[in-house]
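To make this tangible, we now present a fold written out as tokens:
***
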Amino acid sequence: MGGADAEVRVTVDGALAEVVLNRPAKRNALTTAMVDTITRFVRGLPQSVRVILVRGAGPAFCGGADLAASAASDDFHRGLFAMLDEFVHQHRIVVSYVHGPAVGAGMEIMLASDLVVMEPRAWCELPPARLGFALDNWSIRRLADIVGLGHARSILLACKRVTATRAVEIGLAHEVGNLDDAHALCARVGSYPPLGIAELKAVLNDACYTHELSPAHQRLFDAAWAEARRQRR
């Protein structure tokens, strides 16, 4: 499914479903159409699928949102949040294989994944503070839950780039390895009884926060994006 030239290539092979971000010339930057395609694919998976592997084509995992393709729009944000929510609330394990840079929305995919394998040369960052963009409530709190408030402040406020080794140290990634290692991990966890996995995921992801912001935070979010759009004109 999804031809060689498709911006998202999706396949199902037994218990494994693969999602390949396939815009290497654009560093796999996400568009509204891409996130919508991924969400539809994941929602339509057969029960036989136990694991979803997300990876990127070319030198980057994902360079974030494609700002030239209306990725700052409300439609993109709704689509992105729907995709991330689908990963989080899936009863299947979601594994991200990060072989190169994961920036912005690319790092948010990591946050929504259950397990992350990073190649030694890979790195990730969330640059909204540097770019003047706003970030949704879920991504901020999810990051803080995973790495702790101190590391989250460094990543969010100082836009600190996180290497693969450091990502494993702070819990953002789970192992350093290559694509073979990622496939081996998928095969291993895909062999586990699915009901136990579903219960563990449900409890681990039973957070009391969503992408929605409080009214005061929403005003700040809207103001930041409005200013960012003005700066890009």
